[in-house]
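lol forgot to send this yesterday, sorry. struct tokens for the thing we talked abt
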């Protein structure tokens, strides 16, 4: 101040000019920030919530070996893949080499890298994330002569890349997602616009799975594109993606539904249903999930999606959901007018879906759906608890005195699937009942004890055997979903709040599109 007083008037004027230029510069800089940093909704305050996460995890878990925590398990799964399977789609953790399945054709597209990216980011494993990003920048190329599953590539790759883009703001992920989406579009060139199950990324030729009823496309496959495709239109301004998925919705709305149920099979040439088989598990599952999530993702403005979901769930409750003699609520499968009293591990995701859809359900039935979610979570926990390994079988029965146990040898395996843990997490978020963390912790311990091997994590062939053999596959969804849901289960609710984020069916979080944005998509 003394110095200021001694300055001459002209010097004071110059000082004032410099000061005001500095202030203008600071204000101006805000407008040049990348778009991402201005979206309050996309800013999930990661640094703030990581610390509460670690504390709450300690509180919730009983003392156990230090390596038994989701981030440490993630590190082991990732490092093993990095060492033995880098660039391959998946890993064989016993043989310690790369692995792939027919869903990826004969490609080597690093499915595990793409699927794992957002989990690495959320867990704060930044070096690993950078490694993955570098591989994608330098190697991920979709001009390959490979016949891939449209559904799997959409949920794992497009979903994974979009989530990585929204979380990190790195353009490369968006660019790759759009490049890949372009390659999927030829799959929609069918007489009805219902896409083929598979498409050759190079030639664009599509076809359906040989095993599907009467050359049909699968409900859970063509019905699980909506979230990613709406985001693609939002990001690119290209209406084609939005139009393709809305066309599917319109076509389904016009069709008769036996008993109000959606059969799993639809012929893309004739537009007729195949076999009358309805399931909330394999072949049907994520179709229902995406109806609900389309509504949530639209900031609850897409009421057509919500109504379609409500009607579908009402029919499912009437025809497929029953209580066993032992009092366990289960979701069976509908086969040509007959209810099969069997539930799949895949079906267990529905507990979380019912809870997520409770708010906004018709006739003020929110309490009912939250309760239904809790009952499904309980049944699925029983399916784990009634095994030797405390891991759930692929399918379990409620018949002839059987309660939540598998009978056939080929239904006794556990392949690192996420659905039961996914439901625990949603139930935790909506109820904060500590039993869900307890159940999640049981799963952490069982997976770490029976599925961890020196080369990663492997599925097991028989959860009822005290001496199980391994299937020697580390599935990419183990890193994308199972470990992410476990991590979130022990984290603060402020990490990816459900009002702002909607998880695709592979657990890749995509932001809710606020009303104004939504209007932009509708008019594109
Ligand atoms: C995942 O790829 C997705 O969750 C999909 O919707 C069905 N199930 C597998 C994992 O079990």
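and heres what i got for the seq, position by position
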């Amino acid at each position: 101040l003394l110095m200021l007083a001694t300055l001459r008037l002209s010097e004071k004027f110059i000082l004032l000019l410099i000061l005001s230029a500095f202030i203008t510069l600071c204000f101006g800089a805000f407008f040049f920030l990348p778009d991402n940093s201005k979206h309050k909704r996309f800013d999930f305050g990661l640094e703030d919530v990581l610390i509460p996460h670690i504390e709450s995890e300690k509180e919730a878990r009983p003392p156990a070996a230090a390596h038994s925590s989701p981030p440490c398990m993630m590190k082991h799964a990732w490092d093993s893949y990095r060492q033995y399977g880098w660039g391959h789609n998946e890993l064989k953790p016993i043989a310690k080499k790369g692995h792939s399945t027919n869903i990826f054709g004969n490609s080597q597209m690093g499915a595990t890298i793409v699927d794992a990216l957002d989990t690495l980011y959320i867990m704060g494993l930044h070096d690993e994330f950078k490694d993955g990003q570098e591989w994608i920048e330098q190697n991920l190329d979709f001009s390959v002569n490979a016949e891939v599953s449209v559904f799997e590539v959409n949920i794992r790759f497009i979903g994974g890349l979009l989530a990585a883009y929204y979380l990190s703001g790195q353009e490369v992920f968006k660019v790759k997602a759009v490049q890949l989406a372009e390659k999927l579009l030829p799959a929609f060139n069918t007489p009805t616009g219902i896409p083929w199950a598979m498409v050759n990324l190079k030639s664009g030729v599509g076809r359906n799975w040989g095993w599907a009823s009467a050359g049909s496309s699968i409900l859970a496959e063509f019905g699980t594109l909506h979230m990613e495709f709406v985001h693609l239109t939002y990001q690119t301004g290209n209406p084609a993606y939005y139009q393709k998925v809305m066309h599917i919705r319109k076509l389904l709305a016009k069709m008769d539904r036996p008993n109000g149920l959606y059969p799993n099979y639809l012929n893309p040439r004739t537009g007729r249903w195949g076999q009358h088989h309805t399931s909330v598990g394999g072949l049907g599952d994520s179709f229902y999930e995406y109806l609900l999530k389309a509504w949530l993702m639209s900031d609850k403005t897409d009421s057509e999606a919500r109504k379609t979901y409500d009607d579908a769930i009402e029919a499912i409750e009437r025809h497929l959901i029953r209580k066993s003699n032992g009092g366990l609520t289960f979701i069976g499968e509908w086969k040509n007018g007959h209810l099969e009293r069997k539930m799949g591990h895949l079906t267990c995701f529905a507990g979380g879906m019912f809870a997520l859809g409770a708010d906004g359900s018709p006739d003020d039935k929110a309490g009912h759906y939250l309760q239904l979610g809790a009952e499904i979570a309980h049944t699925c926990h029983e399916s784990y608890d009634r095994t030797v390994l405390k891991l759930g079988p692929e399918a379990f029965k409620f018949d002839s005195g059987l309660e939540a146990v598998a009978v056939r040898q080929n239904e006794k395996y556990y392949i690192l699937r996420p659905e039961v843990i996914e439901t625990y997490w949603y139930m935790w978020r909506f109820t904060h009942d500590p039993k869900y963390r307890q159940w999640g912790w049981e799963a952490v311990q069982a997976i770490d004890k029976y599925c961890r091997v020196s080369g990663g994590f492997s599925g097991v062939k028989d959860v009822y055997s005290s001496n199980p053999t391994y299937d020697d596959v580390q599935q990419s969804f183990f890193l994308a979903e199972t470990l992410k849901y476990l991590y979130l289960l022990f984290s603060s609710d402020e990490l990816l709040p459900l009002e702002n984020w909607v998880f695709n069916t592979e657990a890749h979080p995509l932001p809710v599109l606020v009303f104004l944005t939504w209007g932009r998509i509708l008019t594109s």
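The first strand starts at residue 90 and ends at 92. anyway ping me if u want another try
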